[in-house]
Amino acid sequence: MTPEVEPQSWSDLSTIEVPAGNVLPGTRIEVIRTPLDTRGISAVLFDFDGTLSLIRSGWMDVMVPMMVGILADLGTGETRDQLTILVREFVYRLNGRQTIYQMIQLAEEVRARGGTPLDPLEYKRRYHDLLWERIKSRVEGLRSASIPRETMIVPGAIPLLERLRERGLPMYCASGTDETYTHAEAELLGLTDYFDDHIYGAIDNYQDYSKRMVIERILTEHAIGRGALLSFGDGFVEIEDTKATDGIAIGVASDEPDCERIDEWKRKRLILAGADVIIPNYLDHEALLGFLFGCP
């Protein structure tokens, strides 16, 4: 059983126990929950950043200091260490939702300290400007082909997508990053063909988009019921939303940017969210598909 732990406490996972799964022989695939009924799987959902794309790897190292600086400027007497703990907690808790939700929380923290917050969209624009300084060389390198695509994709993702397409499963991509950026970066990485027109991302009118809405659209479009969705994600939102439909959730707990090993913090968090299987990357995709579908 997964322990009942409130998400608000997930920023400090050192004292939280999670179940140890069974590792498939010769792989790094950790099966947390069995048995899994995969007979009804009819569609596949992927998160984007950290699940397929590594272009934005390190985004937390941009967002958290920006927010800490804004709060520190209010002069409340809180130390930067105290503010960092506070900010990390809500950034981690809201990871997987649209970026705007983290900025809405930042505005609430400013207001709670007697400040007058900016519009959350303005905070988001500031964050995007700072993040761009971190990732622009990656984007420009991909555009000029001086950076190989495969170095900016979670290892093994392309062969996995190919195999899923061969099985005739419709694939969807849902990101918390703005849809414009998600489409552009998926194109740079050569991923758009796998998803047809089914790549979704955040919009300024944030109430009109969520990963749960995408899941509901998948179930409606394909007239499929509960237990029909297979999802891959590195954030708790897509894992929770998948499990809410009795789907199968694969947690991608990569130690970015190398993605060679399991990141233990991510692993714990994804298990707490309900992940059925934990993987560091997709290099063992043949064994994973064999486990899921009984194929050789």
Task: Walk me through the structure.
- The protein has 296 residues and is of the alpha/beta class.
- The protein has two domains: 17-54 and 153-293, HAD superfamily/HAD-like (Rossmann fold, 3-Layer(aba) Sandwich); 60-144, no CATH class.
- Helices cover 44% and strands 11% of the residues.
- It has helices spanning 60-72, 80-94, 99-112, 120-144, 157-166, 179-188, 192-195, 211-221, 236-243, 264-273, 285-293, and strands at residues 22-23, 30-31, 43-46, 171-178, 199-202, 229-233, 248-252, 277-279.
- It has an eight-stranded mixed β-sheet.
- Strand 1 (22-23) and strand 2 form a beta hairpin.
- Helix 1 packs across helix 2 (80-94), helix 3 runs antiparallel to helix 4 (120-144) and helix 9 (236-243) runs parallel beside helix 10.
- It starts with 21 loop residues before the first strand and ends with a helix.
CATH topology of the largest domain: Rossmann fold
Which homologous superfamily in CATH is the superfamily of the largest domain? HAD superfamily/HAD-like
Number of helices, counting only DSSP H or I runs of 4 residues or more:
11
In the CATH hierarchy, the architecture of the largest domain is 3-Layer(aba) Sandwich
Order of helices and strands: EEEHHHHHEHHEHEHEHEH
Portion of residues in beta strands equals: 5-15%
The major β-sheet equals: 8 strands, mixed
